[in-house]
Amino acid sequence: MQVSNKDTRTYVASGVFIFLIILLMLFLTFVPIPTGNKDLIVSIISMLVGGTGVAMGKLFGNTDSELEELKLKYAELRVQHDTLQKEHDRLIALLVERHVINQQGVVP
């Protein structure tokens, strides 16, 4: 699997974002939040921490190249399914014609 330039940038950006969130949490461990701005700061921090879920997904998988591989596999399986479906329909038509229409049944 080749890693494209876009994937590399995504990995780096996700890693930097998570690193900045960790630094923010460490900073807030030592600096008290003013009570007047507490709600606003907590809301902003909550949104940033919520974004780490997306960053983690980009950092540890869920890349575009994996998506392309899955799309190719899906297309291949779709062709196989269509082929088997045609064979199934042909076999059913053959059985219906022999056993129902011509009433030949099983010959001993």
General shape: elongated
Query: Kindly, what is the distance between the CA atoms of the first and last residues, rounded to a whole number of angstroms?
Result: 58 Å
Q: Could you give a short account of the major beta sheet?
A: none
Count of extended strands: 0
Based on CA atoms alone, the radius of gyration comes out at 29 Å
Structural class estimated from helices and strands: mainly alpha
**Uncertain stretches of 5 or more adjacent residues:** none
**Structural domains: how many:** 2
What order do the SSEs take from the amino end to the carboxyl end, as H and E?
A: HHH
Classify the helix fraction into a percent range: over 70%
Strand content: under 5%
The averaged pLDDT comes out at 82
Characterise this structure.
By secondary structure, this protein is mostly helical. It has two domains: 1-62, no CATH class; 63-108. It is built from three helices and no strands. It has helices at residues 5-30, 38-59, 64-101. Helix 1 (5-30) packs antiparallel against helix 2 (38-59). The radius of gyration is 29 Å and the shape is elongated. The mean pLDDT is 82.
